[in-house]
Amino acid sequence: MKIHAVIFPEWRSMPTENCSTRTARALETSDITREKAMSNYCTLPLFVFALSVGSLNAAVAAQSSAEISAAIATPGLAIATVLHAEGAQVYECRAASDGNLAWRAREPIATLVFEGSTVGRHYAGPRWEYVDGSVVHAKLASSTPGASQDDIPWLRLDVVEQSGNGKLSGVTHVERVNTRGGVARGPCNEAGAFRSVPYSADYVFLRKG
Fold this sequence. Notes:
By secondary structure, the chain is mostly beta strands.
């Protein structure tokens, strides 16, 4: 997948539309809960975003939906929106618990895309900000490994703070799925050094139905 430049605050429109954005558009126009998710909306390769009856997490091929459900699923909630993110995971070289230097996650810097256009940004906190001014701030609740060792984990995050009235209003949980890239590899030899690793993911925003 091509990585687009991350530009703030201009938020440039991105012309491409993939299956995840088409699926997101379908969800936007339907009152769908997790238990009534769409089936066979589009044909997908391994680990590309898909929806099937019962759970968003049934898209996983290398891991069973039961394993994913136990790790990050939030059953019984309605999908507010699904946004695709492209950008970078930023790491800082810091001392680990054993005293050796290691890459430590610092912050994400990514654009949020819907229907081929940039509609927001994802940044430190972690926070997600939509163009209508609505913002959610969440904390990690659980995780499960990505498709490969180079892919950052899939996550479930619980919203701890929100502001603004808009698309993200009322969101209580966020799932990060379909991750590609983002893992820092190799040694870091200088404390305080930074490294940006390109990544992409889909973020599922959930609220009470």
